[in-house]
Write a structure and sequence with these properties.
Elements lengths: L3 H7 L14 H33 L6 H27 L5 H31 L6 H8 L3
């Protein structure tokens, strides 16, 4: 029977020595926060475009007040989330005294993101375009 040492000596060396290094949690958390911030910016731009479309349709459109309120609340939540993510990215996770605070901030950001998603589901459900707008455009377009 072969010993573990003999078995491990026959296995090829890992060509990437970085794979054996422990993960830097602070670097990982910062990258996660930056990625989440980019998604927050994309959603913010989308909501700003929706707000513009609702305002262009005017108060005669269905659910005008509801859409203005929902989009405004969503935009406000996204600003708060963005501020939280900047604070999270600036704190060092490797410092033990920051870990509890970072955990609380991360939990708050996660809850706010969930609430923002719920608001955006309702925004999408109420819609920002006029009924029949796409159908009328398709009837004119022969392609």
């Amino acid at each position: 029977m072969e010993s573990e040492r003999e078995i491990s000596s026959r296995q090829p060396e890992n060509p990437n020595p970085r794979r054996n290094q422990p993960i830097n949690l602070n670097h990982y958390a910062t990258k996660k926060s930056v990625a989440e911030s980019m998604l927050d910016v994309a959603l913010f731009m989308s909501n700003a475009t929706r707000l513009k479309a609702v305002l262009e349709h005017g108060p005669s459109s269905h659910y005008y007040t509801a859409l203005i309120a929902l989009i405004s609340i969503s935009l406000l939540l996204q600003v708060v989330i963005g501020i939280l993510l900047v604070v999270i990215a600036r704190l060092n996770l490797n410092e033990v005294e920051n870990q509890w605070r970072l955990n609380q901030l991360n939990n708050a950001a996660t809850i706010l993101v969930f609430i923002t998603v719920v608001f955006n589901v309702f925004i999408t459900a109420f819609g920002a375009q006029k009924p029949g707008f796409l159908a009328a455009g398709a009837a004119r377009d022969p392609l």
